[in-house]
């Protein structure tokens, strides 16, 4: 299930492995909540909307 943009931002802010994708990528723009870090702008975020490092669930539980 896809998470909200706000949740992706909060998780990315708390993730020690956040790895921003290339600046020239369309996905690297700020989300509608004004955040600049989001799971959607991380190199570990797969096209099918999951964290390749399996960190999302661990982090979201602490929110």
- Figure out the total of helices: 2
Mean pLDDT level: 84
Gyration radius, rounded: 11 Å
Oligomeric organization of the protein chains? single chain
Task: Bin the strand percentage.
Answer: under 5%
In helices, the fraction of residues equals 10-25%
Using the alpha-carbon principal axes, give the shape. globular
Tell me the major beta sheet: none
Terminal Cα separation, in Å? 17 Å
Descriptive account of the structure:
- There is one protein chain.
- The protein is mainly α and 63 residues long.
- It has one domain (5-49).
- It is 24% helix and 0% strand.
- The chain is globular.
What's the layout of helices and strands?
Elements: H1 5-14, H2 56-60
Key attributes of the depicted protein:
63 residues, mainly alpha
Give a concise summary:
This protein has 63 residues and is mainly α. It has helices at residues 5-14, 56-60. Residues 24-28 have low confidence and may be disordered.
């Amino acid at each position: 299930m896809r998470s909200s943009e706000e949740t992706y931002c909060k998780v990315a802010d708390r993730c020690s492995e956040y790895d921003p994708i290339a600046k020239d990528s369309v996905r690297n723009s700020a989300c509608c909540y004004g955040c600049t870090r989001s799971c959607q702008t991380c190199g570990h975020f797969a096209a099918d909307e999951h964290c390749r490092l399996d960190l999302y669930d661990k982090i979201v539980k602490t929110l």
